[in-house]
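Hi L., both proteins are below.
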Amino acid sequence: MELISEVLIKNGLVFAFLLVGGVMWLSYYVSHHLTAGRLHGSAVAIIAGLVLAYFGGLFTGGSKGMADIPVFAGLGIMGGAMLRDFAIVSTAYGVDLQEIRRSGIVGVLSLFLGIFLSFIVGAIVALMFGYTDAVSMTTLGAGAATYIVGPVTGSALGASSEIVALSVAAGLVKSVIVMIGTPFIAPYIGLNNPKAAMAYGGLMGTTSGVAGGLAATDKRLVPYGAMTATFYTGLGCLLGPSVMYFLIRAIVG
């Protein structure tokens, strides 16, 4: 066992791919045999990952979850920013440019509408919880956009570490909700074509949430939703510390 453990620790990233692959296989098995395909395998895998992360955090004290256990340390690399961003960028290679042209103004409008709605809702919630200054409201509104826009905006505005942490938490909650909820609402909003996926990605914005949710809905839609969601993140980082901050400051003083 010591020998096996040593080999797995030295090849942590390879073992992480093996572990995630096993979870995915089991999730699709459960989806097919226990839910008759009503709950997509990707959605089952997302839920399983969240459960494992929760118990990993309890076992290790809540620092890095399962990645704090030496044999599972490769999960920290596999789930880190580098491979995550690589996966996000790689989705662009699956895009059909003809479909992008067909989306036209809808894709652009969805980006701005999604960003402004997220900021407004986040700022209102922040105000309800007693955060009345423009910096905190803008940072928390940015967190409601995505967990990347939140800390970028907070750092640019000089927000406290507490507010930045809350903005990240808000973005993560949104991402999880979008991941799990997308397959359930897709039939009701016509989310079954590239144009709808691009509009959806622009409105929701959270790239990981949109990509995971669309993968559970129809994997062919992932590149389209992920592309506008990626633009959403960049546009949010640009507008957050500038336009949105001055707008909120003008309102609350």
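That was the first. Here is the second:
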Amino acid sequence: MSDISAIVCRAPDKEQGDDAPTLPRLARLPINRCNLPAAILGGLTYQRHPTPLQIDGVADLHKPLWALLDDIPEAPERAARFIGYMQNHFRLQQPEDAGLAAGQASARARATYLRVVRGWAFDAESREAAVLKGWVESRFGLCPRHHGEALREPGSRAWQRYVESRAQGLRGTNALEAQLDLLYAYSQYELARQFPLRTHLRLYRGVNRLAEHETIHHDPGGDKVLLLNNINSFSRSRERAGEFGDDLLAVDVPLPKLAFFSHLLPGMLRGEDEYVVIGGLYRVRLARF
């Protein structure tokens, strides 16, 4: 039994209409590891009306961390405690404790969440970037759309090259994707504390060859619905974003779709005021330089 009419339950999304674009099937997986399916978190309704995203098990597993952070009023000190927790929990400075042979210690110790972030910042088509795209695919069910070349069909040669790069980035590492899980959870924790009344941030992205992007729908008012790669760089500074392309996109991004951002940790992505955004469908508009 339900207290909501069956007619209401079966009604279409009245804000979008029956012909509203939906996330293409090839851009999503049927399962993921968070509390919402990809078809929902990657859609336009979620962009307008977001709810928190939680990766399975992370909040419960790391309860001592959140209890510790709750009592710290200053963000820099919270960041320092988070870094210390990551080092201790994942034994980042003692990789032998995680089962690594002594001769391999230096190589494995470098393959951390911080190395992935630095690799992404340096090159969005790098091996570290493939790890990050694979993490989004696994946790949120959103498939990458580009890595060095367009990825349109699982199993294609381009897709195989992406999978190989991802596997090389994960090989021999110490729970690297679990480290990214906790980085995302900490990012969401900090966003909630720093922006307690906000649901979105207006972000900007400079792009070249806009016509080559996956445009799903053109609105009469000039807005576009784009299918973005499963993870993307944006900036909160329109001037900084404008340095990276001929066109400037303005997007209202839900806070739960921010994977990590500048000022989260000391030195992280600080040069470009960068915010790393989980993809899917987004309604965007062209902004003026």
